[in-house]
Amino acid sequence: MTDAPSQEKVLVVPRSLFEALGSFQGIHTDPEKYLPSFLDPKNNFFLERAAAEEDPNYKQIIPYALFHHRGRFLHYVRGQAGGEKRLAAKGSLGIGGHINTDDYQEEHLGPATYLHGVAREVKEEIRFQGEIQQRVVALLNDDSNSVGQVHLGVVHLFDLLADSPQVEPNEAPITDLEFLSLSELEGRSERLESWSAFCVPALPSFMEAT
Fold first, then answer.
1. 13 pairs with which residues across the strands?
2. Which residues make Cβ contacts (< 8 Å) with residue 165, sequence separation at least 6?
């Protein structure tokens, strides 16, 4: 059974753990320094979302999926119907959201729960066809604003391998989907949400990562 919005619980880690591992502002391209600890069941737990959104002592773990096809990246605009009103009307590259109690798997709060949440969030927000390759390429943190202070992003790069990938929105907040080149994204940097703005300069290195 899915929790009512007011009762939703989301996966968090203590900010103290993030600081012990090495806090940073912006983007960090060595996710393996952090993920094993974040996904260790002894280090994370589910907290009511209403409380988590207001308490910077915890970081909500947010998968942030980027979709790439032959040097171009999926871009969309968050509509006003989105759940996170503070990001409405911003341009974004990332598809994803909270890991919640619907994502329990055999490993409880471990990697299986996290990966189940990644797949669920992507499926909820967009539809696409064809073969893909996926890998984790970075972490994101932005403590400069109230949204970022309570979230920590895990950047997944989805390479779409079809000749002509078909990607469509699956939720009302996902609007104006299009694939853009790096130069086109650079020209829109001032209209991007902060996480996407952090990602744009790192996109060439993401494509080179193995």
1. 59
2. 67, 69, 128, 129, 130
What confidence score (pLDDT) does residue 91 get? 93
Q: Are strands 26-28 and 132-141 parallel, antiparallel or unpaired?
A: antiparallel
Q: Which two tokens stand for residue 89?
A: 């009307």
Per-residue tokens: 128: 């696409």
- Distance of alpha carbon 155 from alpha carbon 64, whole angstroms: 5
Q: How confident is the model at residue 181 (pLDDT cuts 50, 70, 90)?
A: very high
**Residue 71, exposed/middle/buried by CB under 10 A (0-12, 13-18, 19+)?**
exposed
Poorest-pLDDT segment among 3-7, 16-20, 61-65, 74-78: 3-7
Q: What's the gap between Cα 137 and its chain centre?
A: 12
Pairing state between β 151-160 and 58-69: parallel
- Contact (CB, 8 A) for 128 and 38: no
What pLDDT score was predicted for residue 80? 60
CB 103 within 8 A of CB 117: yes
d(CA 19, CA 184): 35
> Of the candidates 60, 41, 47, 204, which has an alpha carbon nearest to the alpha carbon of residue 110?
41
The answer to whether the beta carbons of residues 116 and 105 sit under 8 Å apart is yes
C-alpha 112: how far from its chain's center? 17
